[in-house]
Amino acid sequence: MSSLIELNDISYGYRAGQNVLDRVSLTLDPGERLFLAGPNGAGKSTLLRILVGLIKPHAGEIRAFGTPRVTDAEFHDLRCRVGFIVQDPDDQLFCPTVIEDIAFGPLNLGASREEALAIVDEVLDQLHLKHLRERITHELSGGEKRLVSVAAVLAMKPDVLLLDEPTNALDEENLRRLEEILIGLPQAMILVSHDPHFRRKLATRIIELRTGKVLQLPDKKCTASERANQAETAS
Ligand SMILES: Nc1ncnc2c1ncn2[C@@H]1O[C@H](COP(=O)(O)OP(=O)(O)OP(=O)(O)O)[C@@H](O)[C@H]1O
């Protein structure tokens, strides 16, 4: 079985002489929910941005869906298949209304207006968010914006999901709802989260970044008790 995503020896620094990432490698296989753990500033978000081509690494190779990704066209193709839920929903949602925000992706991928609206209703139903359908986006609470940003990415029917701190701003009820939604999704995903409970519940594998290097990379899937131990010890 080949990996969906492969990062090989990725190095990057924002400034000369600074290495945020130092020869980091990882793979994502079908069905995995891989967590990136590690302290603030370890380079977790930077790694996700590199994966989708928003930042070019100084060294290393990115492969996705069996193909090396180097050119802008190759990363554009990758971004059509990898849904990226960024840390701040305000960076993701830019349309006046919830309907337009969720329809934006499908329309951009070539869906008709009618098809896009059908997808909007499908994902709002899937996420139990129908009550937000007619709302103005900037009037939503932080937690509501977070869930709508998840809906907007799912509407593009990605093959892989990247979620950067998806539990930020969620209350207990919506956190549980997001956990159930993510566990129920067929897509493989890479998640960044400092929340040990969330990691314990969802992770099939956890790797830890520290000062730009991968500290531990278990070469097998976690058992339930290993998952619990890793989630407790990873910061
Ligand atoms: N646009 C930027 N310009 C300069 N330095 C940056 C930029 N973005 C991030 N950095 C720096 O790169 C390092 C890694 O940041 P990154 O956001 O990837 O870490 P992180 O592990 O996701 O942190 P956190 O857990 O706090 O979200 C930090 O030292 C950060 O200050």
From TrEMBL:
<keyword id="KW-0547">Nucleotide-binding</keyword>
<dbReference type="InterPro" id="IPR003439">
    <property type="entry name" value="ABC_transporter-like_ATP-bd"/>
</dbReference>
<comment type="similarity">
    <text>Belongs to the ABC transporter superfamily.</text>
</comment>
<dbReference type="InterPro" id="IPR027417">
    <property type="entry name" value="P-loop_NTPase"/>
</dbReference>
<keyword id="KW-0813">Transport</keyword>
<dbReference type="Pfam" id="PF00005">
    <property type="entry name" value="ABC_tran"/>
</dbReference>
<dbReference type="InterPro" id="IPR017871">
    <property type="entry name" value="ABC_transporter-like_CS"/>
</dbReference>
<dbReference type="GO" id="GO:0005524">
    <property type="term" value="F:ATP binding"/>
</dbReference>
<dbReference type="InterPro" id="IPR003593">
    <property type="entry name" value="AAA+_ATPase"/>
</dbReference>
<keyword id="KW-0067">ATP-binding</keyword>
<dbReference type="InterPro" id="IPR050095">
    <property type="entry name" value="ECF_ABC_transporter_ATP-bd"/>
</dbReference>
<feature type="domain" description="ABC transporter">
    <location>
        <begin position="5"/>
        <end position="233"/>
    </location>
</feature>
<protein>
    <submittedName>
        <fullName>ABC transporter ATP-binding protein</fullName>
    </submittedName>
</protein>
<dbReference type="InterPro" id="IPR015856">
    <property type="entry name" value="ABC_transpr_CbiO/EcfA_su"/>
</dbReference>
